[in-house]
Amino acid sequence: MQTINMLTWWQWAILAAVLPAIVLLYFLKLKRRPVEVPSTYLWHRSIEDLHVNTIWQRLRRNLLLFLQILLLILAMLAVLRPGWRGTALTGDRFIFLIDNSASMRATDVEPSRLEEAKRQARLLIDEMESGDVAMVVSFADTPKIEEMFTDNRRRLRQAVDDIQATERPTSLLEALKVASGLANPGRTADDVTDVQVAEPLPATLLIFSDGKFANASGFALGNLDAVYKPIGNPESVNLGVTTFSVRRNEARPEQLQAFAQVQNFSAKTAEISLELRLDGKMINADRFQLAGEEARGVTFDLGAFDSGILQLTATTGDDLAVDDVAWAVVNPPRRARALLVTPGVEPLEFALSTSAAMELADLTVQTPSYLDQEAYRQQAAMGGYDLVIYDRCQPKQMPQANTLWIGVLPPVGDWKAEPKVSAPQIIDTDPAHPLMQWLNLGNVLVAEGAPLGAPSGGTVLIDSHVGPLFAVAPRGRFEDAVLGFVFLGNEAGGGGGQDVFIGTNWPIRASFPLFVLNVLQYLGGGQTSLGGEALRPGQPVLLESASPARRLEVRTPSAQIVRLEPSAEGKASFTGTGQLGVYDVRIDGKDDRHFAVNLFQASESDIRPVSDIRIGHVDVAAQTGWETARREMWRVLLLAGLVVLGVEWYTYNRRVSW
């Protein structure tokens, strides 16, 4: 509390003399006149008045005197101008951006970073002057307007209180776009004939966050004055699970392995304990120490099983809990819908008809003439197949499916093939890719092959001394794999006929059936049975039902049931993946499959707050404190004095009238 003296010494002396003067007035002797009364009832009032005016009784229980003294004291305090140092807000329009992403769940600031951000925002709302307006926006990977511009501080405080923590990653850019749309309104389109929709309204942008997001490059603040308030302790400690997946054991393909990676995001060595559970039952555990900034991979042998839910729990005692648990699912293999279009290739047809292949896919075999039929065009456009294999033939329309091309290039994309070369020698393969796992091609010979040129983003799987012979490349959400040689080929024979020749000895090698199974699992969709999808919060999932008439539902980790409407192709997109955990997909009320959503975001697990952020070309330094300003009390004291004066006047008039 601070005061400012507004009077000189002699002015204070005059003001101080008022108090004894008021008291002395109550000692004045009243002049009474004799009055005859018809009753002794009024004697009581006269005796009481006499007692009040005696020298020792006049000051006892006299409310008017006390009110007048209180009024004088309030006036004296007012001229002293008492006040205190408080927080000042610059401007009259404010946008509160409050980060509620996963890292804001950290407890290095009690009770959590999000609660601390909300507390600071409420303090600034309380400092708003009359006429100031503000809006509240929460943001993780997407923004949410909690309250539009208003001068109602109660509604603003309530909007801040209603912000809930999420388990999503952080993106500041989308939140900035929301703020910019209000502070920097411009044209509604790129059309030069369009007009500006509103006048620019400058605003102060208050960002409450730990700064764990990518720089908002390419963004112009314009009329926004950004203020970054970092939330969190720079010495915070966190260890997190950054990867968890299931894959087949390379030495024993019939068995499964779980692979995890844990990382220490602090500078100090810490101990971590891991527990692995299958369908709720602990099956393995491990304990070790991680040095500062160290990451370590851990492998668990799982044995053989068809389906189950794996949960990896890390006991760390750190400041963030949401990245201490990860899930992976093993779904029963789903039979893919595969189409083989070929003029005749017995080795491949035989490999696709084995019992192991039939467990993975329902195969349909057609000749190249099928590609010109309406039935093919409908199935290709509607995604009726998961995998289409084109053997020495090419369609006019690409299917909505993954594809394998044998001896021919896709009609779309930037695929290229050089002239065929006799006896290309295989010199290298990519054993890490699912299509090439467990394959030994050292004894495979190729009669002739065309070196391939894959489009951007493609991966070479088989390389030879003359160039790539097998490659795979993405096409939107699908993949196309191209084989630069054939299993069986045709060449001109005597008498104008066609002779069949063997293009490679691969079909008689032990690796060929494994290659066909890899194709069905990876390109046909069987790879998803191992739960290898690294789904993150907010990422959409494409679900399929055999028929659009069947009821498709998703049960979230919080037990909420979401009903989906499949398209005519039996597909539906599910976007409600905001929670971490395992989601159950149900068809007609029965469990069909599961998928897991994990954080797996190093920027969220590394919870040490950043010192400054960059928005466009502007560096916004962290502001650990706010500008201070003096808060005066004299207005409050004067208002209290007016209230006391009103009470004194009312009390006096009641006594006189009585």
Short synopsis of the structure:
The chain has 658 residues and is α+β, with helices and mostly antiparallel strands.
Based on the model shown, name its key terms.
Immunoglobulin-like; alpha+beta; 12 helices; 32% strand; 5-stranded mixed β-sheet; 5 domains; 8-stranded mixed β-sheet
Q: What would your notes on this structure say?
A:
- The chain has 658 residues and is α+β, with helices and mostly antiparallel strands.
- It folds into five domains: 9-84 and 636-657, no CATH class; 89-188 and 196-235 and 611-626, Rossmann fold (3-Layer(aba) Sandwich), CATH 3.40.50; 239-324, Immunoglobulin-like, CATH 2.60.40.10; 336-524, Rossmann fold; 539-594.
- The protein has twelve helices and 36 strands.
- Strands 15-14-16-17-25-24-23-20 form an eight-stranded mixed beta sheet. Strands 4-3-2-5-6 form a five-stranded mixed beta sheet, with helices on both faces.
- Strand 3 and strand 4 form a beta hairpin.
- The longest helix has 24 residues, at 634-657.
- It is elongated.
Secondary-structure topology with pairs:
Blueprint: H1 9-25, H2 43-52, H3 63-79, E1 83-87, E2 93-99, H4 113-126, E3 133-139, E4 143-150, H5 153-161, H6 172-183, E5 203-209, E6 224-230, E7 239-248, E8 256-264, E9 270-278, E10 281-290, E11 295-303, E12 308-315, E13 325-330, E14 336-341, H7 346-352, H8 355-360, E15 361-366, H9 374-382, E16 387-391, E17 402-406, E18 416-417, E19 421-422, E20 426-429, E21 448-449, E22 452-453, E23 459-464, E24 467-475, E25 478-483, E26 488-492, E27 498-502, H10 511-522, E28 541-544, E29 552-555, E30 561-564, E31 571-574, E32 581-587, E33 590-597, H11 602-605, E34 612-615, E35 618-621, E36 628-632, H12 634-657
Parallel strand pairs: 2-3, 2-5, 5-6, 14-15, 14-16, 16-17, 17-25
Antiparallel strand pairs: 1-36, 3-4, 7-8, 8-11, 9-10, 9-12, 12-13, 18-22, 19-21, 20-23, 23-24, 24-25, 26-27, 28-31, 29-30, 29-32, 32-33, 34-35
Helix pairs in contact: 1-3, 3-12, 4-5
